Amino acid sequence: MTRIADRLYVDPDVRWAAYVFDEMYAAAPQGAWFAPGMLRLLGGPDAALMVGVPWGAVVAADLRGEGPAELYSLNDDHGPIPVSVAPAWADPFREVLAEAGTGLRAVVSRLLPAQTGLLSGAETATAFALALRDLRGVPPSPQDPALRYAPGHAVLTGPASDVVPFPLAGLGLRLVIMEVGVAAVAPQPPGDAVAAAKALRGGDPEKVGVLLSAARRPCGSAADLALDAAAEAGALGGRTIGRCAVALAPLEAVPAIRAAVAARLAGVVPRPPRILTAASAEPARRVG
Predict the structure, then answer these.
(1) Which pLDDT tens digit goes with each residue over 255-278?
(2) MF terms per GO, please (predicted)?
(3) Structural class in CATH, domain 4-39+53-144
(4) Domain 167-278's class?
(5) Are residues 188 and 196 in contact, defined by beta-carbon separation less than 8 angstroms?
(6) Per-residue pLDDT reduced to its tens digit, 24-57
(7) For the chain, what are the domain ranges?
């Protein structure tokens, strides 16, 4: 059977994780799993509106090891180390890995830099949960937002839990994610996730942009400058999420937003902003 690392039709990030696993253990992994990043657009612990973005986590793993579960991070060059003594970046999925028992060996790749502040570690926990489902028969939590997510939809968590339509591509909309190099931002209001879900059910996605702006507390940061420039160039609204400025915008406005944000931040930040656009994400699944 062709190794995952040699399958040219497989996503390069998956092939790279599998290749590193091959090199580290002189054996191919038994599988590879992907989970999308789940971006919390609005809300807090009690209720949140979350959308999938393409940059999540990849785990290549097997159960052929001896002793405690161990892992290696492509992002931090840590490992292979036992899960029990892994650094803080493993905290969000340490509990999941405790269910793995002995023998688990894994290579982890998180697909967004930590400085964006967008990935919580939940996406890596989901990828590990899928690996344990397939390798050990441990069922994942049915409440995991990444497992409930489907392309073209958003997930509302909390008491009014729901999966609501949010077909960004079909609506001609994009999420514009602007990483502007800020080290920290002031705490932001959580925003009204339930109202956003209601707007999406009612076919009013533009209202989400209004609600994003309503959940913004400007503090004069580079992220605020980026959001102001994006709004002037046609964005429907936005707020700071993690350490990024995130805006909802018509697709046709994206080039103008890119140019406006770069111009506004010239001479303000030490490097040009990194700007990504997202319309959807692939679902969490086994990918090799």
Answers:
(1) 999 999 999 999 999 999 999 999
(2) galactokinase activity
(3) alpha beta
(4) alpha beta
(5) no
(6) 999 999 999 999 999 999 999 899 999 999 999 9
(7) 4-39+53-144, 167-278
